Amino acid sequence: xxxxxxxxxxxxxxxxxxxxxxxxxxxxxxxxxxxVKRDDIVKVALFLRDNxxxxxxxxxxxxxxxxxxxxxxxxxxxxxxxxxxxxxVRIKVTTDENTPVPSLCSIYSSAGWFEREVWDMFGVLxxxxxxxxxxxxxxxxxxxxxxxDFPLTGFEEIRYDNDLKxxxxxxxxxxxxxxNFDYLSPWEGVGKVLLPGDEKAEK
Length: 203
Known about the structure:
By secondary structure, this protein is α/β, with parallel strands linked by helices. It has helices spanning about 1-20, 40-50, 110-120, 185-190, 200, and strands at about 20-30, 30-35, 60-65, 75-80, 85-95, 100, 125, 155-160, 165-170. It has a domain at about 1-135: Beta Polymerase, domain 2, CATH 3.30.460.80.
């Protein structure tokens, strides 16, 4: 496709201009994805925003992905939009639980809330963020809910106590019925069940 060729040309241009900052790039599903060094993300973002061939003036969002088996388990994904060239690019960096990622707040004002969300959900730290605190969970919340090792039920449950007339935090209590899992998918765990219309198929 012509559009994929244009994206490949753009990827090669970014790689050539940024040199060692770019680890690799690929075009899949008509989307350009560039993997860059974590410590160079500010340099890369400035280039993407200011270079005439790029002009990615909008930071659409920042999100995280957790791969617990990797040494650097988190991928931080930045999605940029160029209104001038009607193009999009996805930038990825990797980090671990303790190594902060440079903040883009000084370049894109929208990065403030996006980085707070990644911190809240994944526990990824951002260097030089002016106000890195939780944004979706409560201030006393423990853990980071989108990590793969975070328990599905969480650690605490919240309810309103009518006698105390306030919100109460309590440890999660699971009924015994919910503790017995056979680890089968619904399709593997269910025997032959006839549904309306099945008798016609058998004929």
